[in-house]
Amino acid sequence: MLKITFVCLGNICRSPMAELIFKDIVKKQGIENMFNITSAATSSYEIGEPIYYMASKTLTKHNITGSHTARKLNKQDLLSDFILVMDNNNYKNVLKLEGIDKNKVFKLCDFTSNPREVADPWYTHNFEKAYEDIVDGCTAFLHYLKTNNYF
Ligand code: 4NP
Predict the structure, then answer these.
(1) Which residue among 24, 77, 87, 120 is the active-site one?
(2) Residue 11: CB within 6 Å of ligand 1?
(3) How far apart, in whole angstroms, are the C-alpha atoms of residue 57 and residue 55?
(4) Are 76 and 83 in contact (CB under 8 A)?
């Protein structure tokens, strides 16, 4: 089983969206049993909070269901096979953690043909753009796993 941990700053917008979107993609392909999928924050700002309502609305609009309670990245998460971050700041913060294996850490959209950060919707409120980036990243990541014989 592959453990995948999606990471962002607060764990109320981008990374829980990625968690639920990736769960949806693998479920639709009947391969959900091959994964342990979760998400976590680099900060403590939003611990205990549900998914931000605008992120939640965007997921619902695209028929993605599920919930998540924000939590901070812990030592167990660092044992994941892949730690997929949303932006350059997340990347920098994760690499500072004690015991981190740099080889496991990737920016989600670096698996796409257009490597980039996931657009941060916190100040723009453009959750649709974040959704599109995340779907693109998750699709490309799954393709990477398949072509590299991870399962
Ligand atoms: P996220 O969004 O990292 O995608 O969950 C944010 C959530 C909270 C804050 C910033 C971004 N904040 O500054 O509290």
Answers:
(1) 120
(2) yes
(3) 5
(4) no
Which tokens sit at 83? Answer: 């730690």
Tens of pLDDT along 4-55? 999 999 999 999 999 999 999 999 999 999 999 999 999 999 999 999 999 9
pTM, 2 dp = 0.98
Q: What is the pLDDT of residue 151?
A: 87
Among residues 14, 24, 87, 138, the one annotated as catalytic is 14
CB 38 within 8 A of CB 113: no
The per-residue pLDDT for range 53-80, each reduced to its tens digit, is 999 999 999 999 999 999 999 999 999 9
Tokens found for residue 105: 């850490």
Residue 72, burial from CB neighbour count under 10 angstroms (0-12, 13-18, 19+): middle
For tokens 């920016």, the residue is 107
Nearest Cα residue to 36 out of 5, 14, 12:
5
- Closest residue CA from atom 8 of ligand 1: 10
Active site residue 8: yes
Residue for token pair 């100040």 = 123
| 16 C-beta closer than 6 A to ligand 1 | no
